[in-house]
Design goal:
alpha+beta, Spore Coat Polysaccharide Biosynthesis Protein SpsA, Chain A, Jelly Rolls, 3 domains, 10 helices, 30 strands, 21% helix, 38% strand, globular
Length: 437
């Protein structure tokens, strides 16, 4: 099974745990025997449980690549969008990537779905059915329609011609109000969960009809000039040969704090105390200080280096415009080599705690406008400063003046306090260089 997972999101609806780098799919809230896993980790694990031979490609923006490799490793395929251009360009680019880079044949079925549904393994069994339907070629597009559990205003609706498990699609309806949604459901409508399958050649052909390009590399180069347009508008609504597969299993869109807390197995993650007078209260705390809740009802509390949210659960759905007004640098991020957390911000200094995974390193780089001081607080590794290699361990201090080339390699897990000093501290002040060790 060839699966394209769409990983987008601006990270604002689940503030303060999410940001432009760590969108909701990377937040670790699902309990496992070894700790917690994120939505993307859960979905990837479920796919490989149902189909160990599945070829998974994640279509995402370049800001999320490090988080993906941090959580899933380097084996997963990643198709990087140079910028955001909505779902049709993203899917066209990923389809061309499968054909031109991965060598997937034109007749092969491809399944596209979001990276963050909260589902059981029967959902991925249904994706295998959807892939098989696409392989048969009786329709150009095969959609999954979710059996609705209530008249939701959040989803579009698919109205099938019949009540059979697989049916031709009669029509599509945009997101309605609750009253209209109830009428659609009486007509046998299904939620449109953005899940569909096709033979690779179909979308590649549609892409060539709408975009002038030769191959994946050419499309990648032209990507910033492409018109922003959704796959539904560019393809689905214009295609007469569409069928839908009904799915009646559990399916939740984890897009708000309200729905996210419904999936939590325990009321608290992190240091938190909720007294007996609280009712329907959930706490997610990433700070190393306790949170105490007393006498609250239907409330979510979330604390991270980015900020603190205390909200009525229903009101938490309306968080976005308030977060839009917050102007703050990213305080935490996961990278392919580990993670960093900003500890202190001053006018002419920035203090960061860096954690590097064993066997990983930062890029070999220099800065023009700032000095840096690294203090190793645990682990062992090697620092490289202007080509000179030295072993470092807990208690070691490395000083780097502006302009010198430097990196650090983790032989074991390595934790470092990095202090940046200068009048113009910026993430753009970085030049990378090749390094052979």
């Amino acid at each position: 099974m060839n699966i394209i997972l769409l990983s987008g999101g601006s990270g604002k609806r689940l503030w303060p745990l999410s940001n432009d780098i760590r969108s909701k799919q990377f937040i670790k809230i699902f309990k496992t025997p070894d700790g917690y896993e994120s939505m993307v980790q859960r979905v990837y694990r479920q796919i490989t449980e149902v189909d160990p031979e599945a070829c998974v490609t994640i279509a995402t923006s370049k800001t999320q690549v490090s988080s993906i490799h941090n959580q899933l490793g380097d084996a997963v395929g990643v198709c990087v969008e140079p910028c955001r251009r909505d779902t049709f360009p993203a899917i066209a680019l990923a389809t061309a990537y499968l054909h031109d880079v991965k060598g997937v044949s034109l007749e092969e079925p491809v399944v596209v779905c979001p990276v963050d549904p909260y589902v059981n393994n029967d959902y991925f069994e249904a994706l295998k059915q959807l892939s098989a339907l696409a392989a048969q070629g009786k329709a150009n597009l095969s959609l999954m329609g979710i059996e609705p559990t209530y008249p939701s205003e959040k989803y579009g609706y698919i109205i099938p011609e019949t009540a059979e498990p697989v049916s031709k699609v009669k029509t599509f309806k945009e997101k309605p109000d609750a009253k209209t949604a109830a009428v659609y459901i009486e007509q046998g409508a299904l939620w449109n969960g953005g899940v569909f399958a096709y033979q690779l050649q179909y979308v590649l052909k549609r892409a060539h009809e709408l975009i002038e390009f030769t191959d994946y590399q050419d499309l990648f180069r032209k990507y910033e000039s492409l018109t922003k347009i959704s796959f539904d508008y560019a393809v689905v609504e214009r295609e007469p040969e569409i069928q839908v597969l009904r799915f009646a299993g559990q399916w939740k869109d984890m897009g708000t704090w309200n729905t996210l807390t419904e999936a939590m197995e325990s009321p608290c993650i992190g240091k938190a105390i909720v007294n007996e007078s609280c009712e329907n209260v959930h706490v997610l705390n990433e700070l190393n200080v306790p949170v105490l809740c007393m006498g609250l009802k239907d409330v979510v509390v979330s604390a991270s280096p980015e900020g603190i949210l205390v909200s009525d659960k229903d009101q938490s759905s309306y968080i976005k415009p308030y977060v839009d007004a917050i102007d703050q640098q990213i305080m935490f991020a996961e990278k392919s080599w580990g993670s960093f957390r900003v500890l202190d911000v001053e006018d002419e200094s920035l203090t960061i705690k860096v954690t590097l995974h064993a066997g990983h390193r930062m890029n070999y780089h220099s800065h023009t406008f700032r000095d840096e001081v690294w203090t190793v607080i645990s682990g062992q590794g090697r620092a490289v400063v202007d080509g000179t290699v030295r072993t470092v361990r807990a208690g070691g201090v490395i000083t780097m003046k502006a302009g010198c080339r430097h990196t650090i390699v983790a032989d074991t897990e390595l934790k470092v306090i990095e202090v940046q000093l200068g009048k113009d501290i910026s993430v753009q002040d970085k030049q990378k260089f090749p390094l052979e060790l």
